[in-house]
Amino acid sequence: MGTESLKTAAWDIDLPDAWRTMRSAAASGAYNMALDAALLATARDRGVGVWRTYAWERPTISFGRNELVQARFDPGSLALAGLDSVRRPTGGRALLHAAEVTYSVALPLDDRTPWTAVYAAINVVLLTALRHLGVRAELASVHDTRALSPDGPVCFDRPAQGEIVVGEAKLVGSAVWRERGAYLQHGSILLEDSQHLVRAAMRAPQPAPPPAASLSTCLPHTPTWDAVATALERALRDCVLTRQRGAVDDHAIHLDASERARLEMHFRDPAWLWRR
């Protein structure tokens, strides 16, 4: 299906009319997860969708909300590999945030709309942006994937249905969470593939993973972080406009500083990081 047809079909659901975009400077894993969690509450309370693009201060492994990690990782193995770590508020499996562009989407979502429909709509934004950059990306079909356990392979080993692939290799890894009338999706668009370092940080040696796709291998020249962020924001506007209503702007979003700080402390807490 062509990009325009995908946009029309995927965005014909109950999504916000008002959208904001924001770009964040590189920050720690705990800060990034706290800000995404704060935006989740903001989206629910204000009825607005927020598209955020951000980066990481240091190479950081993030674990899925319900992923069992204690048998595979520990503080010593991560320190030996020189990697920071954080547990996400969303599901999914372990991945490394390093040479990438990270996105997040927070929006209000009532009980009548399946989260899978929102996931498909957001992935069309990602696909539209990547095709605009010249990447021959596709959505992984049900025939190319099988159900993945949160305790299975690391994130970029294998695509799940609807994720972005180039050939058989995953280019974008995404994770989601639905909570009390709101939805959060965030993920990584790889500029370069450094996901093998996830295996290097494990307590016991693991077989080498299949290579992930990256923009450096998909394009003659690797685009800059800003170029990818711009393509994502442009694709969001294109998708919102297919509904013939709504608007996207980049006005600053006010967040409660004390609540964001409280959330950051939560994501720094070893009891959360190593809870499973």
How does this structure look, described?
With 276 residues, the protein is an alpha/beta fold. It is built from nine helices and eleven strands. Strand 9 (169-179) and strand 10 form a beta hairpin. The longest helix has 18 residues, at 29-46. It is globular.
Q: Report the order of strands and helices.
A: HEHEEHEEEHEEEEHHHEHH
The strand order across the widest sheet is: 7-8-9-10-6-2-1-11
- Computed over alpha carbons, the radius of gyration is 18 Å
Instruction: Report the end-to-end length measured between terminal Cα atoms.
Output: 41 Å
Strand content: 15-25%
What number is the mean pLDDT?
90
Q: Characterize the biggest β-sheet.
A: 8 strands, mixed
Number of strands: 11
> In terms of quaternary structure, what is this?
single chain
What are its keywords?
alpha/beta; eight-stranded mixed β-sheet; 276 residues; 11 strands; 22% strand
Summarize the structure in short:
The chain is α/β, with parallel strands linked by helices. The chain contains nine helices and eleven strands.
Which SSEs are present, and which pair or pack?
Elements: H1 3-10, E1 18-23, H2 29-46, E2 49-54, E3 60-63, H3 75-81, E4 84-87, E5 95-97, E6 100-108, H4 115-132, E7 138-139, E8 164-166, E9 169-179, E10 182-190, H5 196-200, H6 215-218, H7 225-241, E11 247-249, H8 257-268, H9 270-273
Parallel strand pairs: 1-2, 1-11, 3-4
Antiparallel strand pairs: 2-6, 3-5, 6-10, 7-8, 8-9, 9-10
